[in-house]
Amino acid sequence: MSEVVANATSDAAPEKSPRRRWWERYSSTSPITLTMLALVLGVVIGALIIMVTSATVLDAWRHSFHHVGSIGSTLKITFDNVAAAYRAMLTGSIIDPTLLFHSISTGHGWSETMTPLSETFTYATPLVIASIGVGVAFQTGIFNIGANGQAIMGGIGGTAVGSMIHVPMIIHLPLTLLAGIVGGAVCGLVPGVLKAYTGAHEVIVTLMFNYVVNAILIYALTSTALQLPGQANGISRNFDASATLDPIFGAKSGLRVSYGIFVAAAVVVFAIWFLKRSSLGFDFRITGANPNAARASGINPKFIVLALFVVSGGLAGLAGVVQAASTTHYIDSGFLVGSAGIGFTAITIALLGRLQPMGIVWGSLLFAALGVGGRAMQAATGIPLDLATIIQSIVVLFVASPVLIKEIFRLRKGAQSFQMATKGWSS
Amino acid sequence: MSARVDVTTPEAAVPAVREPVGRRRVIGALTIALGLFIIFVFGFGSAGGAHSVVVFNPINLSSGAPWNLSNLTVLTRWWNVVLGLVALALGVETWVRRPAGALARFGVGGVMFFLALLLWSVRQPGPAPIGTINITSVLVNSSAVIMVLIFGSLSGVLCERSGVVNIAIEGQFIGGAVAGAMVDSTTNSFWLAALVGIIVGALVGWLLALLAVRYIADQIIIGVVIVTLMGSISSYLNIQVLAPYPNLNLGNQPSNVAIPLLYKIPVIGPTLFDENMFFYAAVALVALTSFGLFRTRWGLRVRSVGEHPKAAESVGINVARVRYSTVVLGGAVAGLGGVAFIATQGQFQPGITSGYGYIALAAMIFGKWKPSGAVVASILFGVSAYLVQNLQNSNVPISTEFLTMFPYLVTIAVVAGLIGRVRPPAADGVPYQRD
Description:
Chain A is mainly alpha-helical. Chain A has 18 helices and no strands. Chain B has helices spanning 10-17, 21-43, 76-97, 102-121, 135-161, 169-187, 190-214, 219-242, 268-273, 277-295, 297-307, 309-314, 319-345, 356-366, 371-393, 401-415; strands at residues 51-55, 72-75, 132-134, 257-258, 274-275. Chain B has 16 helices and 5 strands. The interface between A and B is large, with 54 and 56 residues.
C-alpha cells in the first residue's frame, strides 16, 4: 500500500524533459500497455510451464547436473524447445515466412500461405459477436455469465430453422440467423425477467442456466425432430445449403474464412452505433454509470434489464448460429460444451477489450490467434494446445488486476483500476 | 411492503406478520403437484401387475455384511400411489397450515419422488433390463457424490461468509484432483495425497484472495478465469505428463474404514459407517465449520467482515487478513474435496469434475450460506446427480436431461424467491478498500 502512495507522490514532480515524457507515456498504465505487458507475462509463464513439463528439457538439466560444463548446451536445448513451440504458434496463426516467400516468388501455394490467417479469422468471428454481447451487458453493470448457454440456444434455434425449413437462400439465411438471435434472446430473457421482477442475482441465474441449456441441448439432439434421422448419438440434421455461411473464396480454395465475418463486422458497426448514438444505448450506459441517477431521470430500470438481456442474449445466440452455420453445418452434443465453449472466452475477451467494440475485435483476434496457434503448436511440437488456454487465462487474470501489473513492472501513474460494475451477490 | 403498513392499527399489522405465508403456499402447491405427478405418472403409469424388487444387502462388502434384510417385492402401482399420497398429504398440510418447516416438507416430497422414480424405473414387466433396485448401493454411491459436494459447498460457505465470492470451487476441485491422483500414485498414500491436495487447493484459494483482496479485482471474473486456468492446466498436464507416465495416474482407491458394530446396521451402516476417510473428514468438517463460524470468536470475525467490513475495521479487525486467511482455508477445503473426488472416481481425466464445483456453489446458495443447509442441499443434489448417471447407465427410457437440470432449476427458484428466500452475506463479493 505504501508503495502506491510513494508512486503517487513521485508523479507530482512538475518538471519533465521531453524524453522522459515519451517514456512515461509508454511506462504508464494505458490499456494497451497493460494488455501487452499481460501478454508478455502470459508468454513467460507459458514458457516456464513448457520447460518444467517437457521431458527433453528436464533430461538436459538432469544431464547438466552430472556433467559440469554442459550448461551451455542445456540452455540451448531449453531455449530451442520453447522457441519451437512459440514459433509454431506464430506461424500457425498468422503467417509462415517461408511459405509466404515461396508464394511471392512462384505465385503458387497462396492457399497454404493464407490458411493460418483464414483460420484465425474463422475462430474470431463468433468470438467477436458473443464478446460484444457480453460487453454491452457489462457496460450496464449486468454480468451476463450465461453467454455460453445463450449461444447454445441460438445454435439450437438456428439449426432447427436452417435444417428443417426449405426456402430459397435469400429468405433462408436471414431467417436462420434470426432464429439464432431469437433463441439466444429467449434464453437471456429468463434471467432478465427474474432479475427485473424478483431481484434474483443474474450471475447465479445465468450460471445455473448454462447447465440447464446443456441439458436442453442433449434433449433436443436425442429426443426431438432435430436429431439426424437414423442416429442414436446426439447429432443434429445438417444445414440446408441455402442456410450456410459459405467460404468467401469458395469451397475449392481450402480457406474456411466465411461470410460470417461480414455478420461480425455488421455487429461491430451496430454496437458502435448502438452504444454511442442510439437512445437505448445511452440509457444503458447511464444505468451502468449510475443506476440511481438513471432512475431519477426517468429511465425504467426493469425495462433496461429486460432490453439488455434481449440484446446481450440475442448477440450470444447469433454467435452460436454463426459458429454452426459457418464451420460444421450441424451441431452435436459437444457443441460449445466445456473447453469448446465460447461463452466464458467471451467474458474474458470483453474484459480484455475494455468493453469497447473495437477493443473487443482486437481481443478476439488475439485469442483466436492463440487458439489456432496452439493447435499448430500441438501438431508441430506435441505440446498440448491447452497451453494457449493457459496463456489466455493468465493474460486475463493480469488484465483484470491492473494494480498487480503496475507493481510487477513498476509502472508510473496510479493505475486507474478497471472498475467492473458487478457488486457481489446481494445487489 | 411492510414500510407502508400503518403499525398503529392492529388490523393492518396482520398482513405484515403473515408476509412469508404466500411463499409457503407456493411450496405447498409445488409439493401437491409433486404428489399428483407421482400418483399419476409413476403410479397409474405402470401396468397393474407390474412389480419391483427392492434389495437391501450391499453389493460390495469391505468388512463383512450388515445384518441380512431379505428382498422386498412390491406392486409398483400401489406402492407409488401410496408414496404419492404421502407427498400429497404433506403438500395439502403445507398449503393449509403454512408451517415454518415448509421447505423440509418439500424435501420429504422430493425423497418420495426419488423413491417412486426408482420403483417405476425397475418395474417388471417393464423396459429396464434389471428388475431390482438396490437401495443400499444407491445410497452408498450417492454418498460419494454428496461428500464431494459437501466439501465444495463448505468451501463456498467459508469464503462467502468472509465476503469473497468463490466461483472458483471447480478450479480448486480440479487442482486437488490432479495433485491427489499424482501423489497417491507415486507414494501410494492417500494421507499424503490429501495433504498435497489441501496445499494445492489452498494455493488456488490464495491466488483468488491475492487478486480479489489485495488487488481488488472483480471476484466473479477472477473466479471464472481461475476455473478456466485450472481446467486448461489439468488438461495440459494430462496430455504432457500423465499420458506418457501412466504410473502417475493409477486410479487407486482408499480402503474403507468400518466403524465397529455400527456398520452392521442394514442400509444405514454401509452408507454412513463403512466409508473411506474422506467421508468422515467431510462429516467432521461440517461440524467444525458450523461450530467455528457460529460459536467462536474467529467465526464472529469472519462473519462480521462478510456482513459489514467497515464496522469490523472500526473495532480493530484486519479485514484483509481475515478475508485472506478464510479464502485460503476455503480453498484448502475444496482442494481436499478434489482429492476425495479422485479417491472415489479413480483415474484423473480432464473434465472429470464436470461441473460439480458449480453444483456445490448451487448447494451453498440453496443452503442459505450455512454449513447445515449446505449439507441438506448437497444430499438433495447429490442423490439427483447420482441418479442421473445411474439411470443413464441402466438404460431406463426416460429423459434424464430433466433430472440433470433439477439442482440448477431449484437453485434458480430459490434465488428468485419462488421457494424460500435466501440472503447472502451483505458484503459478499464487494471488495473492501480502506479509505
